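COURSE: Structural Biology Practicum
ASSIGNMENT: Worksheet 4, Part C
STUDENT ID: 0417
INSTRUCTIONS: Below are two proteins. For each, the amino acid sequence is given first, followed by its structure token string. Answer the questions at the end about the second protein only.

PROTEIN I
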Amino acid sequence: MHDDLIRTLQTRFSQHMERHAGLAWDAVLARLNAAPASLTALQHMEDTGGEPDVIGHAGETGAVTFCDCSAESPAGRRSLCFDDAALAARKANKPAGSAAAMADAMGIALLTEAHYRQLQELGAFDQKTSSWIATPASVRKLGGALFCDRRYGQVFVYHNGAESYYAARGFRGLLRV
């Protein structure tokens, strides 16, 4: 059922060995076979333009971490406010949904700032777009949310009202298998 996805993931894995140095595809495939439900989440990531790839490996447990590695924030996950509370707070011109709810429905997590910075060490991502990231409760309580991008060779973290949404802002996801 997921044969095409497995082939796509294997090809991407082989083309970007710098993202997961020292890790063999057989180890990744074994993790996927042991957790078949993860393939549904990875398929959602792929279908929305995320181009998931392995960016981490926990040697002691064998867990692998997949992340959206598309050059820009995934096209199928843009124009979303931060979470459902922000969506409900909008009085007019509501977006189609929220990043947090979509990530949850896909079975993935929003990147934290640390994850986002880790991803940026592997390449230059979000040079024309931006991505919502997991936001501390203290910021969210005040109505804000955080997002990141890469400009001028630097990674920037910004804040915005959680109810805002833009055609060039989406979110990246993370999945541990």
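PROTEIN II
(use this one for the questions)
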Amino acid sequence: MENQNNGMQLEEVAKDYLRESAKWSMFLAILGFIGIGFLALLAIIMTSVMSMAPEIPGPYGAIKGFISIIYLVFAIIYLFPIYYLYKYADSTKKALNSGNTELLTKAFSNLKSHHKFLGIAAIIIIALYIIGAIVMVIGYSAMH
């Protein structure tokens, strides 16, 4: 059954909720951008610190060169959900102020992308935990 209510109107209380959601989303997006800046700064600092560290043979020495890259990769990955959250907050605010339905639709599209990104990231992290646990069990079993 199709929804024939193409002219759906938002009640004022729903608009107030969206305004509040946009404000908090903007706050969180700004904090996220600051966090990304700190990650990028840490990548630069770690490059300097690691270049001054003495060469260590073995796996620890090999990791030394990748630490900065890891911080930078995390900053880049973190940029996507924060950008979507920022676009949601900005578009929602503009849509509610102008009454532009298309802009509100775009805002919800950005919110969907934000949630989708976080959901996929959560699945990946859970899978990595499971793989890590399996590797630890196999490693422990191989030692005994």
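ANSWER KEY EXCERPT:
Q1: The radius of gyration is 22 Å.
Q2: The CA atoms of residues 87 and 110 lie 6 Å apart.
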